[in-house]
Amino acid sequence: MPRGVKKSDLPQKACQGCGLPFTWRKKWGKVWAEVRYCSDRCRRAKKTAR
């Protein structure tokens, strides 16, 4: 019997940098409310675009 949760059942957000949806990751478990970007690349691109 498989363990865990299906990826389709995990929470999602839209990235503020690129606008694409991204899914919850285990490493973001404690800070999910503060996560705004899907990757470091989007985070860096948003800061330089200002």
Question: Any overview of this molecule?
Answer:
- The chain is 20% helix and 12% strand.
- The chain has 50 residues and is α+β, with helices and mostly antiparallel strands.
- The longest helix has 10 residues, at 40-49.
- It is elongated and about 45 Å long.
Task: Summarize the entry for a quick read.
The chain has 50 residues and is α+β, with helices and mostly antiparallel strands. The protein contains 1 helix and 2 strands, in the order ββα.
Helices and strands, with pairings:
Blueprint: E1 12-14, E2 21-23, H1 40-49
Antiparallel strand pairs: 1-2
Mind telling me the C-alpha Rg? 13 Å
Bin the strand percentage. 5-15%
From the spread of the alpha carbons, the general shape counts as: elongated
Number of alpha- plus pi-helical segments: 1
Mean pLDDT: 88
How many strands in all?
2
Share in helix: 10-25%
Q: Could you state the order of secondary-structure elements as H and E?
A: EEH
Stretches where pLDDT falls below 50 for ≥5 residues? none
Q: Distance N terminus to C terminus?
A: 49 Å
Biggest pleated-sheet summary: 2 strands, antiparallel
What's the arrangement of strands in the largest beta sheet?
A: 1-2
Structural class comes to alpha+beta
Provide key terms for this protein.
50 residues; alpha+beta; two-stranded antiparallel ribbon; 20% helix
